[in-house]
Amino acid sequence: MSGVREATHAGSWYTSSRSGLRNQLSQNLSAVKPISTLDYDPPVSNAKAIIAPHAGYSYSGPAAAWAYAAVPTEKIKRVFLLGPSHHAYLPGVALSKFEAYETPLGDIPLDIDTIDELRATGIFSDMKSSTDEDEHSLEMHLPYIRLIFQGRDDLKLVPILVGHPSASTSVKLSEALAKYWQDDETFFVISSDFCHWGSRFSCTPYYSNVPPLANPVPPVKSSTSVTSSTLTQPLELVKKFSSASSNPDVPIWKSIEYMDHEGMDLLRKPGEEGAVEKWHGYLDRTKNTICGRNPITVLLNLVQLVYKDQPVKPEFTFVRYEQSSRCVTGKDSSVSYVSGVLRLPQ
């Protein structure tokens, strides 16, 4: 373990200016407001994990703030950061060999003792330095983490790159993480964007008819009150939208919105029996290009394991949903950004 991982995306995906970055992220956090209908009044004292996006800050930075505002920083001393591998094929899961991660706001030291404990399990490989520095799914969370824990020299990070682990490896990883989960001073960040829609992503599923959303995530609103069961009923899904359709009955962006909400609805109760299977079934059926699907699966397995015999289980509250743009024709493209907060039973 040696050296500091450079902030390789500073100056392109986000500003490398210390003051400019601090101002941008602080403004994003200041824009976050309580949502009474969701009992969301950040920071959230019983929050244990968040799902937040990892695109360039001009795209997903405002949405990510809704997750980071919820983190109860006063009691947290260690953050596990799980992100998907975009640039290198990884059959399993991998750990960093660096001692710290650089951000324009200051370095974040890695928890070397914990990383060594995890490495000793035999589940993990080590990331190449180039893989570590090329990957944005981890780096795009670092400035937010450094900012909300500003002045906290005791904070340490455990970054984990999640590739394509087998089902058994994913379960083993959750078993290895369980003891850290039960530490009150440990927090988990799951890095994921949601739907990447468009021919450039080889993803153009389309619902030609959708009902009103049962649980619209702000700022989305539903015009009609419907039962939550409506959202979980599979609808006919066209696997490939016809680019010849210039004026579809249901706007493409609305179809994407519905499909993403299906996924969020399945994640709301990760401790329920069958949650992992339902999640995989949804991904298989829709082919939704949720890049952090595997880190999310690890979290589901972890919650299933820890709360297996407990009557009251953690629940996700999704507090923000945005799209990078609104797709109108088959030539358009967009990426969806979701912020969710996992709350422990009180």
From TrEMBL:
Q: Name one Pfam family in it.
A: Memo
Write down the InterPro entries for this protein, in alphabetical order: MEMO1_fam
Which family, according to the similarity comment?
Belongs to the MEMO1 family.
The protein here is known as: Protein MEMO1
**Species whose genome carries this gene:** Cryptococcus neoformans Tu259-1
